[in-house]
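Dig into what follows:

_____
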Amino acid sequence: MQNLKLACATVVLLTLGSGAALASHACHDDAFKFCHTVIPDHKLIQHCLARNKPHLTPACRAHFR
């Protein structure tokens, strides 16, 4: 189970493109909260986070301006 969480976290890190280190840290919890059903699909995670922008933490939301 721990390996699965680590693998998913890595996917989230790689998903957010430029500024990935900062964005992934800021959006990690939001991705798991709102988009867990589409992990590990990179494009779907981005779309999911964008659709849920009003509900994201302020730090994550800043990456979708």
Q: What stands out?
A: Residues 20-35 form the longest helix (16 residues). The CA atoms of residues 35 and 47 lie 9 Å apart. Residues 2-64 form one domain.
